[in-house]
């Protein structure tokens, strides 16, 4: 059996819903042969956006067609505001008009927005068709393509409409990161840093030590980061697929992060930028609550943010409005928000007893009005 240029294969071990993450260099052009090898059959609709399509749609379609697949594409506009029910509806129209049946395979070719939206459509069209993630941003390769959280946004809250629905395969070609703008690369690095803080101090130190190579997009360093993060996330998802408890730690930084995204209409911050601010806020809250045992966390996190040009302040934003938006967090239980607070690098805890006044104080400390 041909092995292509798969450098790493990581399994998301979920019994009958389990799947492989294939990480390689140049494997996008082998997608047709890989689908054959993995016994993926059926009509294929590739969902992408114009930015990604200009680089990667032709190679994907040609490879699928060369391998004998009936493959076509549908494009949605680029941007977080299009991770919406309206775009899902547009895609349902395409599927219905094209007479796509239950054996259809949707391919999400793009970043997290395309992955979450395509997965949501896959979970709901005809009560579920198969889908494959082909992530092309760092953020999608290290985080969003893995674990089966699929969703669209509501104007009041991030990912409020969604499902847990696993892909059949994740096919990650790290060479697609060559065309990714620096600010998008940094946004993805925020989730990489998150993985270190929540579970793996050695990984966190490695990121610090190899940051120059990572930022240069050295293929070996990229492979280490994409593989490292996928392994950490796959293990959490294996233990708690539907976020009954443990999986909530993957939400470190997202309580404030999602609130920042929604109150700014999903236009001011990239997801990773909002998560970076959220990790900083949660770290400050942990310190204020007397939970933070390792005083090196905040300075190292700030240094990462500076080196990656991620924001550290929230000038001009209304702290009370952010605190209000936080109440819509999906982790809330009977009205109490469950925070993910760091204790030290590699260990976080789920904590409900955080007064709203402390949240507002911290947001003001970070420059909020
Ligand atoms: N499901 C999950 O577990 C999960 C995890 C993390 C984030 N997310 C979601 O992911 C989304 C953010 O994803 P994202 O950061 O990938 O943003 P994105 O999908 O908007 O992509 C960022 C930008 O990069 C462009 N792009 C994509 N690939 C490119 C490439 N190879 N070269 C050049 N440009 C490219 C896109 O067109 C877009 O303009 C958010 O909606 C977030 O909520 C979901
Ligand atoms: O996979 C998870 O679980 C995560 O929390 C990963 C996050 O990085 C991601 O942004 C996720 O979409 C957030 O999930 P949500 O349940 O808070 O919407
Ligand atoms: Zn995230």
Automatic annotation (TrEMBL):
Q: Which protein are we looking at?
A: 3-dehydroquinate synthase
Sorted alphabetically, which Pfam families does this protein's record hold? DHQ_synthase, DHQS_C
Mainly resides where? cytoplasm
Organism lineage reads as: Bacteria, Bacillati, Bacillota, Hydrogenispora
Give the species: Hydrogenispora ethanolica
One cellular component GO annotation, for this chain's record? cytoplasm
Q: Briefly, what is this protein's role?
A: Catalyzes the conversion of 3-deoxy-D-arabino-heptulosonate 7-phosphate (DAHP) to dehydroquinate (DHQ).
Q: Does the keyword Zinc apply?
A: yes
Cofactor(s) annotated in UniProt: Co(2+); Zn(2+); NAD(+)
**A GO biological process held by the record:** amino acid biosynthetic process
The record's top EC class is: lyase
Q: Which CDD domains match?
A: DHQS
List residues binding Zn(2+). 191, 254, 271
| EC code(s) of this entry | 4.2.3.4
Instruction: Please tell me where NAD(+) binds in this chain.
Output: 78-83, 112-116, 136-137, 149, 158, 176-179
């Amino acid at each position: 059996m041909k092995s292509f240029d798969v450098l790493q294969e990581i399994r998301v071990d979920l019994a009958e819903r389990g799947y492989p993450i294939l990480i390689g260099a140049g494997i996008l052009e082998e997608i047709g042969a890989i689908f054959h090898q993995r016994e993926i059959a059926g009509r294929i609709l590739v969902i992408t956006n114009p930015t990604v399509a200009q680089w990667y749609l032709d190679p994907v379609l040609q490879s699928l067609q060369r391998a004998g697949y009936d493959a076509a594409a549908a494009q949605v506009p680029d941007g977080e505001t299009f991770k919406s029910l309206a775009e899902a509806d547009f895609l349902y129209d395409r599927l219905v008009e094209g007479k796509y049946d239950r054996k259809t395979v949707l391919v999400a070719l793009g970043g997290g927005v395309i992955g979450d939206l395509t997965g949501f459509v896959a979970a709901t069209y005809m009560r579920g068709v198969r889908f494959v993630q082909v992530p092309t941003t760092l953020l999608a390769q290290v985080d969003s393509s893995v674990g089966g959280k699929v969703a669209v946004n509501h104007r009041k809250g991030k990912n409020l409409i969604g499902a847990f629905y696993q892909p059949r395969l994740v096919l990650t070609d790290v060479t697609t990161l060559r065309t990714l703008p620096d600010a998008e690369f940094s946004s993805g690095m925020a989730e990489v840093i998150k993985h270190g803080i929540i579970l793996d101090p050695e990984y966190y130190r490695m990121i610090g030590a190899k940051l120059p190579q990572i930022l240069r997009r050295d293929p070996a360093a990229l492979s280490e980061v994409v593989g490292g993060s996928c392994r950490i996330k796959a293990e959490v998802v294996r233990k708690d697929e539907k976020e009954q408890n443990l999986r909530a730690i993957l939400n470190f930084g997202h309580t404030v992060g999602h609130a920042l995204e929604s109150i700014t209409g999903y236009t001011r911050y990239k997801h990773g930028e909002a998560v970076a601010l959220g990790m900083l806020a949660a770290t400050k809250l942990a310190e204020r609550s007397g939970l933070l045992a390792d005083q090196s966390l905040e300075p190292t996190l700030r240094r990462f943010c500076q080196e990656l040009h991620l924001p550290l302040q929230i000038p001009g934003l209304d702290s009370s409005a952010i605190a209000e938006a936080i109440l819509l967090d999906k982790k809330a239980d009977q009205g109490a928000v469950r925070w993910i607070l760091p204790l030290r690098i590699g260990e976080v805890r789920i904590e409900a007893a955080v007064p709203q006044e402390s949240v507002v104080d911290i947001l003001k400390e970070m420059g909020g009005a």
